[in-house]
Amino acid sequence: MVLTRLALNDEVFVESLLEQSTVHPRASALDGRTCALVRLGALLALDAAPASYSSQVAMALASGASEDEIVQVLVAVAPSIGAARAVSAAPELALALGFDVDVMLEQPPDHEPKGASPR
Predict the structure, then answer these.
(1) Helix (H, G, I), strand (E, B) or coil at 89
(2) Which of 63, 82, 99, 110 is packed most tightly, with the most Cβ within 10 A?
(3) Along the 119 residues of the chain, how does pLDDT read in single tens digits?
């Protein structure tokens, strides 16, 4: 069982699991889209580097996720990661989606920002 081997820290199993997941994003039983969105949630929770967001957003989009679904990942994890982390992750995620963050931040929140649409 996967959980037992992980709980026992079976080093060979853990190493092979991590290698498979890095090389083959669909190595888990999850479909590619779901896997990419879950991984993005983990990156958001870990306060990963912005380059990691860009890479994972690209993978999510390539796997069929919409931009709205990607944003909703941040909304979904916000209660778990807290307001401060969610607020600090928002512009980084926006950049990964191709938004013009400077323009976005200059606009009042009740208006659709001009020039903030993805490329």
Answers:
(1) helix
(2) 99
(3) 888 888 988 898 888 877 765 555 555 788 889 999 999 999 999 999 989 999 999 999 999 999 999 999 999 999 999 999 999 999 999 999 999 878 877 876 765 544 444 44
Residue 95 one-letter amino acid: L
- Are 47 and 58 a contacting pair, CB within 8 Å? no
Contacts with 26 (C-beta within 8 Å, 6 or more apart), sequence order: 32, 35
As a whole number of angstroms, the distance between CA 70 and CA 76 comes to 10
Q: Give DSSP secondary structure letters for 17-64.
A: HHHHHHH-TT-SSS-HHHHHHHHHHHHHHHT--HHHHHHHHHHHHHTT
The domain segmentation of the chain, as residue ranges, is: 1-30, 31-119
